[in-house]
From TrEMBL:
Provenance organism: Paenibacillus woosongensis
Record's protein name: Alpha/beta hydrolase
Pfam families named in the record: Abhydrolase_6 (PF12697)
InterPro entries: AB_hydrolase_1 (IPR000073), AB_hydrolase_fold (IPR029058)
UniProt KW Cell membrane keyword: no
Record-level Gene Ontology MF annotations: hydrolase activity
Ranges annotated as spanning the membrane: none
Top-rank taxon: Bacteria
């Protein structure tokens, strides 16, 4: 697609999509001129519970036997770190049914993340990105997301961090105009 569009691209990704954009930029090299990453959810220390090593396999088993509700619960508790007492409230929201319908895709997030949610430091040589990169994090986001942004910025030669005042991990959905402004300020 990059070739058809003129040979260069600017990439944006949010959450696990930020990791997908990072992987693509690493593969595409000089074809990516700017990289905008919103809160890649790496777990690189003990600031948040680690995602279980068998996470993807367990999700796939739940889906294989038709346990969509359980798959979404597992995703919410293990990948998102949502305490169990809040999950029952989430089930009452109409969006829960939509999550159940898409539950067969939840394992894709785990595949994209690989072992970067294991509590270990980011690999030093996994991403070779030359593009100018901004790693954006919400001021009100959990500490592990701030830690992840800092660790990634240390790994990329042309990366900086920008904090969005008053925002959290939901800024892409809840405050897209705030995120768009930060991206525009970085340069389109």
């Amino acid at each position: 697609m990059v070739q058809v569009a003129g040979g260069q691209a600017r990439l944006f990704g949010s959450s696990s999509g930020a990791v997908l954009a990072l992987e693509a930029a690493s593969q595409l090299g000089d074809q990516v001129t700017k990289l905008y990453l919103y809160e890649p959810p790496f777990i690189i220390n003990d600031s948040r519970k680690r995602v279980p090593a068998e996470y993807v396999e367990h999700l796939n088993r739940l889906i294989e036997v038709g346990k969509r509700t359980e798959a979404v619960e597992y995703f919410a508790s293990e990948a998102l770190g949502i305490p169990g007492e809040f999950i029952d409230y989430m089930k009452a929201d109409p969006s829960w049914q939509k999550m159940e319908q898409l539950s067969h895709t939840l394992a894709y997030d785990g595949l994209i993340m690989g072992n970067t949610q294991s509590g270990k430091p980011l690999p030093a040589d996994r991403w070779v990105v030359k593009a100018s990169t901004i790693i954006i994090v919400g001021e009100n986001s959990e500490p592990f997301l701030h830690d992840a942004a800092s660790a990634l910025a240390e790994r990329l030669p042309q990366a900086g961090i920008h904090t969005l005042p008053g925002q959290d991990h939901s800024a892409v959905v809840m405050a897209p105009e705030v995120l768009a402004k930060a991206i525009a300020e970085f340069g389109l």
